[in-house]
From TrEMBL:
Source species: Fervidobacterium thailandense
Any one GO molecular-function label of the UniProt entry: hydrolase activity
UniProt protein name: Metal-dependent hydrolase
Keywords assigned by UniProt, alphabetized: Hydrolase, Membrane, Transmembrane, Transmembrane helix
Cited Pfam families: YdjM
TM region positions: 12-29, 35-53, 65-83, 103-123, 130-149, 155-173
């Protein structure tokens, strides 16, 4: 199985090809949307993270840990504002300075993220090359990226499709000897 470095290298090399094909298909269906440098950079991050993400279920610890800490970033995005607001409303924290409240909210977000990610990873479906190595997982990842970025990014479809194909490129690399397995649904 290719290691982290190989998967990342494959991700970097295939991203321009993916963008080219995306533009060709967009032109064919006459939906040419101009991709800005920001769209391309964001699509790149989603693609690169996707090209490593399936090995979240790997027994290879550095790679698993790297992927996990990246995912905690999503927890900050989901929980930080909500928690900060709640902490501001708590009576016994009324005189707490704002930077301290921010610190508590950030620490709590990361703790929740770590708890959730580790809980999910202990589920039986996360055995190596199980569900996380499937196009359904790629689609879920793409959907999450879509939901998270929709309020923030104009070209969110491109970034979500990049996320999905990042995972797909990972599957193709893993199953290069049996490429049909890259299309397995779970
Ligand atoms: Zn893999």
């Amino acid at each position: 199985m290719p290691n982290l470095a190989t998967h990342l290298r494959i991700g970097v090399l295939t991203y321009p090809v993916f963008v080219f094909l995306y533009n060709v298909v967009s032109t064919l269906v006459k939906k040419t949307a101009h991709l800005s440098a920001f769209d391309l950079a964001l699509g790149y991050l989603a693609f690169i993270l996707g090209s490593d993400l399936p090995d979240l279920d790997s027994t290879n610890a550095p790679l698993r840990n790297l992927t996990k800490v990246f995912l905690y970033g999503f927890a900050i995005y989901v929980f930080y504002d909500f928690l900060l607001e709640k902490f501001r409303a708590v009576a016994f924290l009324a005189n707490t300075p704002e930077p301290v409240l921010g610190l508590i909210a950030l620490g709590t977000s990361l703790t929740i993220g770590a708890g959730l990610v580790n809980m999910f990873l202990s589920l039986p479906m996360f055995y190596h090359r199980g569900f996380v190595h499937s196009i359904t997982f790629g689609a879920i990842y793409g959907l999450l990226v879509y939901l998270f970025l929709k309020p923030l990014v104009e070209n969110v479809i491109f970034v979500s499709v990049s996320a999905f194909f990042g995972v797909f490129v990972h599957l193709l690399a893993d199953y290069r000897n049996r490429p049909w397995k890259a299309f397995k649904l779970w």
